[in-house]
Amino acid sequence: MNNTLIRKILSIAAVAALLLSAASPAPAGRIIIDSDEQFDFARSVMDGKDYDRAVVEFERFIHFFPEDSQVPKARYLIGVCHLKGRRYDAAREVFSRIATSDPPGPFEGNALFLIGESYYEQGVYTEAARYFTRVIEKHAEPDLKNAALYRLGWTRMNADRWKDASDIFEAVEEKSPLYGSAQRLAAESLKGEDLPQKNPATAGALAAVLPGLGHAYVSRYKDATIAFLVNGLFIWGAVQSFHQDQYVVGGILTFLEVGWYTGNIYSAVNVTHKHNRKVRNDFRNRLEDRLDLNLFTGREGQVGVALTFKF
Fold this sequence. Notes:
The chain is about 70% helix and about 5% strand. A two-stranded antiparallel sheet has the order 1-2.
């Protein structure tokens, strides 16, 4: 009797527990973030060139896994994303923190190089050269040092320092994949000193002798024609006004002609400078830059500046 009662009580309890379990809401779904998966996801977003989102995903990785061994790499790649997205100030801020960390981290040399690259892409060649020089002086790693030498040579060429550029290209080591290109650029850069340049002073003097002649000196024949006709008309009008005793009109036309005449000289000098810049830029554009900064590095191992050489 007692056994039967006990069995009934246990059965009722089991059924009640089962019903309660079925009636209770299921635990809310949880997203479990794995460090490797989060880092790889951020890298895949970066590889897809969605740099703004990639920055957010790398920062999420750092937030949730601050002690993970890949945190320094994530910080470095955040700087790379800013650089690739042409947010140069933000990139330099990230790379500067890496380059000045104490003790130095594994990405110090890369960070210095990419600060220089950010200035180089902006055309701020003096600052770019300063950082490439620091890489050369402080870091003996061959690939990074030779890349810095190669890029420093280009900064000198862009600053029209042809001989300096040649000497720097000559310093690229023979074992470097950039050696052949550097040797060709060392020879070609010297030709920049002998480019066919026009003399701005000569252009100004010609324009002073005859309006429009300074423009014709640099083959700007349309501008030369306009300058000649406009100045000629004002001179003719002023002369006719004085011959007809219209001194007020003649004075006004003479005053205006002084402005046109002076402007003709200034314009001739200015277009000559533009002509010379175009000659230099065309010369540089014919030279091939064999350094392709592939900032998307391999999935394994230390992040570095991956170099792709195009032949």
